[in-house]
Amino acid sequence: QKEVEQNSGPLSVPEGAIASLNCTYSDRGSQSFFWYRQYSGKSPELIMFIYSNGDKEDGRFTAQLNKASQYVSLLIRDSQPSDSATYLCAVFPNRDDKIIFGKGTRLHILP
Amino acid sequence: DAGITQSPRYKITETGRQVTLMCHQTWSHSYMFWYRQDLGHGLRLIYYSAAADITDKGEVPDGYVVSRSKTENFPLTLESATRSQTSVYFCASCQQCARGQYFGPGTRLTVT
Asked: What SS3 state is found at B85?
């Protein structure tokens, strides 16, 4: 079983709609969870991190964590063409100081 | 505020040559990481360092060497480059890694 799993996409969402990105992880002892955005040809950029069950909101972005189901999601409200990117889910298992990355979901916002 | 920088940004080299990729951070972060990113594989950890003079292997360390004599620098050396090492290389750093890592701009390396 892969440690962090994401659907590779592409996920196509109309402009103005809500984009929903999902991720599952295998290590139940994981401490914190991240969403990175990576534009084509650029480096990953940390946009959200969450460590408690429930929702965390930052502007148009909401991260959701359900530790019982080992599930993390990212909601992007009022999607814009500039949100088109690959979104990497990542997990801090707290076994050492490494972060485990998923392979990413490509998101395409349709104008 | 330079943050984390990598040099060179682009490099073309020949098979068998030694290549060193540089990573420099101005945040005094204890932890530094080297990843490679290839289509279909995502980010793969090559080496990481918890502090100066402390390094450890990641998922794909073969063919690479690292050192960390100063906290701010973490060079990655390909001792004898092979075509399979053609990739985009990212350096990252963190202090409280449970709050995330921060990436440099990357180096695109082509081995011919």
From this structure: helix
